[in-house]
Amino acid sequence: MQVSSSAIVDPAVGNKNSLALRLWHWSSAAVISGLLITILFLFVILKMKTVGPEFQAVLQKQGVTMSKEQVRGLTRIISHRIWDWHIYLGVALSVLLLGRIGLEFFQRGQQRFAVKLGTARQYFRQQGVDLQDARHSLVVKYSYLAFYLMLVVMVLTGLVLIYADDVEFLHQLEHTVKEVHNVTMYLIMAFTGLHVLGVVWAESTKNKGIVSDMINGGE
């Protein structure tokens, strides 16, 4: 018995996407966007090496003279505030990730990611590598799996960095963990960009309704 191509896209069990999954999706999108915005501010918009001299120049016009060390202390206040927000959002992402793992055990039937992945693999084996729909569906499902794994790495390394100064063992790993955290951040940025482009492409071709399904649940 073969599985139809429509069945592997998102077979309906009630709604395609449960209310809990939709809330998780948009909450995670907001939190991840916030995390990326804090990085954008720290390393691009408010890059301390360029902002410091600008502060110094503005203060000098007002008749206030400050040394480089004093200006650096001023810019650190801004940097620390942004990092605080980055940490708060990181903790929120940790909670959301735990919620997503728990949600997988309570979803019904084809609403579960594991079931969707299994269905896509079965359809791919039956239809073969040459069928575009089967290949595309499987690639998309595995890209989501990779994303979830990246979230796990991002959250775990982020938590290590939060407590690295307080725990000697974690402090010794801080440099390596920071490198892994940064690389994972870039991978998530790349996935996010590709995901948005993929949704726009799908909506403009034959898979219309993806965004509305993630808003109203689909049928």
Q: How would you describe this structure to a colleague?
A:
It is a single chain. The chain has two domains: about 1-15 and about 110-219; about 20-105. The chain has helices at about 5-10, 20-45, 50-60, 70-105, 115-125, 130-165, 170, 175-205, 210-215. The chain is elongated, with a radius of gyration of 23 Å. It has nine helices and no strands. It has about 220 residues and is mostly helical. Helix 6 runs antiparallel to helix 8.
Topology at a glance:
Layout: H1 5-9, H2 19-45, H3 48-61, H4 68-104, H5 113-127, H6 132-163, H7 168-172, H8 174-204, H9 210-216
Helix pairs in contact: 2-4, 3-4, 4-6, 5-6, 6-8
In brief, what are we looking at here?
This protein is mainly alpha-helical. The chain has helices at 5-9, 19-45, 48-61, 68-104, 113-127, 132-163, 168-172, 174-204, 210-216. It has 2 domains: 1-16 and 108-219; 19-106.
